[in-house]
Each structure stands twice: as C-alpha cells, then as structure tokens.
Write a structure and sequence with these properties.
Blueprint lengths: L14 E3 L2 E11 L26 E12 L5 E3 L5 E6 L4 E4 L3 E4 L4 E2 L9 E3 L4 E11 H4 L3 E6 L9 E2 L5 E2 L2 E5 L9
Antiparallel strand pairs: 1-2, 2-3, 3-10, 4-9, 5-6, 5-11, 7-8, 7-10, 11-14, 12-13
C-alpha cells in the first residue's frame, strides 16, 4: 500500500452545519502513532512500544478546525457527529473516532461517558486530530469521507429554523499520489 505513505489533502472550503463550522486542514493514513506513543485500546490492533501499528490496520488521521458560529457558549456531543465513512466497491464502513487529540498541546482527550462532548466558548475555534483505526483491507480502492451528522448515525434530514431540511454533510478525503496539494 505505497499510496498510504504520502496522502495529504488541503481542504480550504469551510462547511457550515449550524452551530459549527468544519474544515479539514490535512489528513493522512499512517502506521505511525499520531499521539506520541499513546497506544490504541483495541484488541485486534497490535502495536509496538511506540504505538506504531504492526498488523493489518492503519490510523486515518484528520486534522480538523471546528468553530462555534454562535455568540454564546455551546456544549454538545460534537465528536460523535464526525464519522469516517469508507466506500469501496461493495461495502460501506462507518467508524467512530478512536482518539481525539487537541492540536495546541498534543493532549489526548480522556475516554469516558462524555468523550464526545465538548464546550466551545462564543465564536471559539478548536484544532483537533481525529484518529480512526481502520483495517487495511477496507482502505484498498476506497473513497474516504468525513461525515458530519448532528443526528449521530441517523441518515434522516434535520429540520432547520427558517424552512427547509438540512441533510448531513460530508468532506471527501482525496488521495493525492504525489503528496502535493489538491
């Protein structure tokens, strides 16, 4: 899987899905641990002492900027809204985030009953790395998307104030074989 070595995507378009904005700053598929040796706690995934995956799995890491669009503080289960979708020839895989790493201080968010909950001050932006662990078999000849769905896993539309329905948004993560910007 040579293409996994140099995958980067610069997403300049900001997606607004009230009350938040989302922008993928970069992303990659790697075997190297994105959390400074913090091992993923999944039985099927084997890692060495540095957290590097040594079996048929990889990290999909999305560096994301999320902003509160409101002039007031908001607390929501926002990290549960962001799922990795992989569409291959036959199957669709949807995965929850395995780790949330705050980019400013490289701190991994503790896993507990409120792992996906986050408080944003008025108009605050946060930069995070969302880490997903995926079987290498699913990554072959597949399209990757970061799905943003405030309904969680529900595929139905969301009623909006002011009329109209809002469906979930997705950011397609594009493979760039040369490793340059798209």
């Amino acid at each position: 899987m040579k293409w996994m070595q140099k995958i980067l995507y610069q997403q300049e378009k900001e997606i607004r899905n009230a009350p938040f904005s989302y922008r993928v700053d970069s992303w990659e598929v790697t075997k190297t641990c994105p959390g400074e040796g913090q091992k993923i706690d999944r039985e099927e995934v084997q890692c060495d002492e540095n957290g590097t995956i040594t079996n048929g799995y990889s990290y999909v890491v999305a560096n994301l900027t999320v902003g509160n669009l409101n002039d007031m503080e908001i607390t929501q289960h926002i990290w549960g809204f962001l799922r990795l979708k992989i569409r291959g020839a036959e199957d669709v895989y949807v995965g929850e985030v395995d780790q949330i790493i705050y980019s400013e201080n490289n701190v991994i968010k503790e896993k507990n009953k409120n792992t996906y909950e986050e408080t944003f001050a008025a108009n605050e932006e946060k930069r995070v790395r969302l880490v997903y662990v995926v079987s290498d078999d699913l990554l072959l000849n597949a399209n990757l998307y970061l799905s943003i769905n405030p309904n969680g896993m529900a595929e139905k539309t969301i009623g909006r104030r002011g009329g109209g329905d809002k469906t979930m948004d997705s950011i397609k993560l594009v493979k760039n074989m040369s490793g340059g910007m798209i």
